[in-house]
Amino acid sequence: MALEQTDLCEFIRTELAVLLPILEASEFSYDFIIPEKQMVVSIDKKQLDRVIFNLIHNAVRYNPKGTNIRIEVVQKENMVEIKIKDNGIGISREDAKHIFNAFYRVDSSRNSEKGGTGLGLAIAAKIINAHGGTIELFTAIGEGCEFVLTLPFIEKI
Predict the structure, then answer these.
(1) By CB count within 10 A, which of 13, 23, 108, 114 is most buried?
(2) Greater confidence, 58 or 100?
């Protein structure tokens, strides 16, 4: 990984500028809560871009038009959280236990032609773990999904 100290808030704003047309084309509503202050983290921008894109793309792919997605960046002591939450269909708590396992798909009828390979979230977890962080999913059927990515915070660039 090519780690560099980066203002996470500015990085997320740039990511959202690229992803906004996808959300609008899918008729999603959105709320972005990104602080104005710097929150410095050591990241591989290309790899973290891959994670953010995967999470947003999955939300768009598996939820109906009109779904709301909320993206928030929060500093918690020596960590920074990126929260990506939708109010879509959600998944069962049983499926959520396995969602970061390679080749696991919530709907076993999905395949690479219909719904992916089941690798995206496994790769996302490996990338976040390689950054010294964590990724968690909070969900239930009918309650949407909330992914919480946690990364170590650095004081200054």
Answers:
(1) 23
(2) 58
pLDDT in tens, 63-99: 999 999 999 999 988 999 999 999 999 999 888 888 8
Kindly give the pairing relationship between strand 145-152 and strand 134-139: antiparallel
Amino acid at 107: D
Whole-model pTM: value is: 0.89
**What's the confidence (pLDDT) of residue 1?**
85
CB atoms near residue 39 (< 10 Å): 23
